[in-house]
Amino acid sequence: MPPASTTKASDKTQACKKLTSLLQRTYSRSLPKLKMPVLETMLFAVCLEDNTWEKAEAGYDKLLRSYFDLNEIRVSSVSEIETTLSELKGADWKGLRIRSILRYVFESTYSFEFEKLSKLTLESAQKRLKKIDFLSPFVASFTLQQVLGSHVVCLDHIAHRLAIHLGIVPVDSSIEDASEFLKAGVKKSDAFAFAHLLRQMATDPQFAERIEDDYDEEGEFDVLRFEDRLAVLKAPRKRKKKKKAPVEQPAAKKKAAKKKATKAAAKKEPAKKAAVKKAAVKKAAVKKAAVKKAATKKAATKKAATKKKAATKKAATKKAAAKKVTQKKTASKKKAARKKVAKKKK
Predict the structure, then answer these.
(1) Residue-wise over 140-150: b if at least 16 C-beta within 10 A, else e?
(2) Higher pLDDT residue, 118 or 258?
(3) Distance between CA atoms of 143 and 130, rounded to whole angstroms?
(4) Which are the contacts of 304, defined by CB distance < 8 A and separation ≥ 6?
């Protein structure tokens, strides 16, 4: 079968039509209606993301009832809005996005009217929405579909995960890429109904946890195999194999194992003792050699000192003798000189 990049539009159409028919047997065919101004439509889309339509309506109504007006919501903290929407999945992100939308609209129009968006072209509207911080692909797509009537398949995280498990979008696709991929297989008039059916199945308690599991792709990508994938989702979840607990050994086996261990330990003991003895002998030899070396060094030092002392003494004696001889000669010379002087006087 062809890879995702070369999947025929006719195969996508066939798969989406058949999937729609199968889901309509289980879930409601009637479509909810939404008639709101542009800004309110965006706020509702934030509440709807990853939730059922009924929960989104309840959450949106609670949001409006909990605050005096939209301006009060704009100046509220994210945590306060999160608390108000705590019953919705992903309430923390919803608080951040709602405040971000209200701030952008107010700062760009100095009001809470955003009807100018409905008069823009698709390209201009997309560029305008990209300027809003933290806006998700789903909120942008839903707004374009409801306000401009654009041909888009609105996927949020849970619908995207379901589409991956059904094998109708590539496993490695982003939400934007998956939406664009399905666009070729769903008519503009059927896009809202198709996305709504995916939402109903994705929020069904039977599948809500299953679609978050890792998807094991078998073989090449083929949108026409979605029925096999659907059967896998409907089948009971495979239980993970538990590790077998170690089987308890009988008393006789335990005794034999203990005896074997004792025997092995006894066998190792002589070798251990021999190693200890060898280490002790080696240590004693090293110590003896060190003592001997120290003694030799000490003796050599003492001998050298004695020799030096003797040489010094001998040199001193020699010097004294030489000095004595010199003194004697000098005395003799003086005596001879005195005699000579005395003789001359006579």
Answers:
(1) bbbbbbbbbeb
(2) 118
(3) 12
(4) none
Alpha carbons 294 and 205: distance in angstroms, whole number: 87
Closest to 36 (Cα-Cα) out of 51, 27, 47? 47
Q: What is the pLDDT of residue 338?
A: 76
Tokens of 107: 């700062």
User: Please, which pLDDT band fits residue 1 given cuts at 50, 70 and 90?
Assistant: very low
Instruction: Output 153 or 332, whichever has higher pLDDT.
Output: 153
Asked whether the beta carbons of 44 and 34 are under 8 A apart, the reply is yes
- What's the DSSP call for residue 242? P
For the entire predicted model, the pTM comes to 0.69
The confidence score (pLDDT) of residue 326 equals 72
Q: What percent of the chain has pLDDT over 70?
A: 71
Q: Which of 174, 206, 234 is the last residue of a domain?
A: 234
Structural domain that includes position 187: 4-234
Would you tell me the crossing angle of helices 9-26 and 226-234 to the nearest 10 degrees? 30
Give yes or no: residues 181 and 51 share one domain. Answer: yes
What does each C-alpha distance from 272 to 54, 227, 276, 284, 326 come to in angstroms? 78, 69, 6, 18, 81
> What angle do the packed helices 157-166 and 191-202 form, to 10 degrees?
90
A 10 A CB-CB count for 48 gives 25
Q: Is residue 304 part of a domain?
A: yes
Rounded CA Rg of the chain: 51
Q: Are residues 172 and 289 in the same domain?
A: no
242 belongs to a structural domain: no
User: Residue 307 and residue 3: Cα distance in Å, rounded?
Assistant: 101
Comparing 105-119, 166-180, 240-254, which segment has the lowest mean pLDDT? 240-254
